[in-house]
Amino acid sequence: MNMPKKPSKPVKKKQNKTTRTLMADLHMHTARSGDSDISAWNIIEQARAKNLDVVGVTDHNTTKGALETRQLAAKEFPGLIVLIGQEVRTNSGEIIVFGLNTDLPKNRPLVETCKKAKGLGGFIIVPHPFDKIRQGIGSKIIRVLPYIDAIEVLNSKSLWKRFNKRARDFAEARRLPMVAGSDAHIPQYIGSCHTFIEVGKIKPTEKDIYKAIKAGNTAVSGNVVGLRGAGIRARLIKFKRKITGKPKQVK
Ligand SMILES: [Zn+2]
């Protein structure tokens, strides 16, 4: 599948008897992250409104939000494929791990976390690798290349274009699979970035999707929303919770 030169170039979804192009947002946070006010319901609503086929729910250090979203989608939007993800903080930055139902320990060394994730059968995406403001793993990416399945080359919340550009240049130079994600912490920004994934089946399984990404059958597009998507409101909610001592609610 040809990659568009510019991330903003729209990609048409196609479907024939043997292949299908899925529109995915592979990076978003629910209230289970503690810094987002997105509920499982919001994800269903936004996915339906924005014609998404796949959502990757990637809460900070927990799969709870993803599992809740999958459960709700099974009842309310059975056509939606919910990938179980977690954005794990290591002591050198963050990685996204898909395909595990258990939570990986946080604040462990980067290589150790990658090895553990792979040992359990996880699929690893490096989010915003060169975003220095937001826990990118930076040049340490070299150390974990053997464990990485794809690189996020377009993150909707990156404040400076050069962060995404560097990720894209890095992935292109090494011919590594590329994906995009909104990193939404507010419902309306779900789907602000897309990964188009070409799969060889009309009804793909989760494994078919990982296989297609790994094979590089992806294209990325979307908008960078920067600070608007930074979830200032969500952070205020978190702060309010902290001072009022109210437990967080998942709608
Ligand atoms: Zn994130």
Please give a structural write-up.
With about 250 residues, this protein is α/β, with parallel strands linked by helices. The protein has a single domain (about 20-245), classed as TIM Barrel (Alpha-Beta Barrel), CATH 3.20.20. It has helices at about 40-50, 65-75, 110-120, 160-175, 205-215, 230-245; strands spanning about 20-30, 55-60, 80-90, 95-100, 125, 150-155, 180, 195-200, 220. Strands 7-6-5-4-3-2-1-8-9 form a 9-stranded mixed β-sheet, with helices on both faces. The N and C termini lie far apart (about 40 Å). About 50% of the residues are buried. The protein binds zinc ion. The site of zinc ion has 6 residues, from loops.
Give the helix tally.
6
Mean pLDDT: 89
The largest sheet is:
9 strands, mixed
Order of helices and strands: EHEHEEHEEHEEHEH
Per CATH, the superfamily is: Metal-dependent hydrolases
Low-pLDDT ranges: 2-7, 247-251
Classify the fold: give the CATH topology.
TIM Barrel
Distance between the termini: 39 Å
**Ligand list:** zinc ion
What count of structural domains? Answer: 1
The appropriate CATH architecture is Alpha-Beta Barrel
Rg estimate, integer Å: 17 Å
User: What is the helical fraction, as a range of percent?
Assistant: 25-40%
Classify the beta-strand content into a percent band: 15-25%
Order of the strands making up the biggest sheet = 7-6-5-4-3-2-1-8-9
The secondary structure category is: alpha/beta
Shape: globular
